[in-house]
Design the sequence.
């Protein structure tokens, strides 16, 4: 049973560029959440997708946008990249049934903005 | 004041010791509490999940939640060098599938 997978593993971009990161959830999961983890910090919640719609959003500007596809996979898009966007971007999947469900994280995509 | 406070460490203990890791929080709406372990350059791995106040034990790990004090703990018994990692507390109000609020993480080193 494959866990959460993310691509690419590493990415280097320059300021002002746009980036797209991809996530495939754990088999059987229908909800995808994205987190940003800066060096030495805990992950910060960006947003969550369920039924192809954004259901929750953290305190991130609208330069950060996303999409969920019918097969539950998801993309995170970041426009007009800033140096401060350099971080590990984590995808987590879960099954939105009841309140006892937990989130399983992928290995992350490490983004460096120069 | 951050919503979740966690001492970043590093915390260094000898192999076999009992380790105590803690977080405090300010949002009284939090009801679901998790502990994740994160090895260097990897994604977080869920260790423990607790709802509301109380204790939960799983093997060498025990999680405690004291909602009256807004304080959660993770205890690791018989610590091993393989336990060396960053331990992140996380919490949410609406259920485990909701967006999580994390602490900064505590870097734990178990000395052989």
Sequence:
């Amino acid at each position: 049973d494959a866990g959460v997978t993310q691509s690419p593993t590493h990415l280097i971009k320059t300021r002002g560029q746009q980036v797209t990161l991809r996530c495939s959830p754990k088999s059987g999961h229908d909800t995808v959440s994205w987190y940003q983890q800066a060096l030495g910090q805990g992950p910060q919640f960006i947003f969550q997708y369920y039924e192809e719609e954004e259901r929750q959003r953290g305190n991130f500007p609208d330069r950060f946008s996303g999409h969920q596809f019918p097969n539950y996979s998801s993309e995170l898009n970041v426009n007009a990249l800033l140096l401060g966007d350099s971080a590990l971007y984590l995808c987590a999947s879960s099954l939105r049934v009841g309140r006892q469900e937990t989130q399983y994280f992928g290995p992350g995509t490490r983004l460096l903005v120069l | 004041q951050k919503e979740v406070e966690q001492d970043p460490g590093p915390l260094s203990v000898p192999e076999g010791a009992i380790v105590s890791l803690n977080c405090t929080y300010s949002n009284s709406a939090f009801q679901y509490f998790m502990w994740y372990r994160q090895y260097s350059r990897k994604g977080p791995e869920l260790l423990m999940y607790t709802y509301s106040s109380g204790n939960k034990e799983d093997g060498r790990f025990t999680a405690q939640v004291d909602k009256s004090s807004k304080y959660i703990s993770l205890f690791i018994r018989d610590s091993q060098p393989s336990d060396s990692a960053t331990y992140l507390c996380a919490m949410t109000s609406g259920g485990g599938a909701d967006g999580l609020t994390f602490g900064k993480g505590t870097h734990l080193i178990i000395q052989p």
Summary: Chain A touches chain B through 30 residues (CB under 8 Å). Chain A has a mean pLDDT of 94.
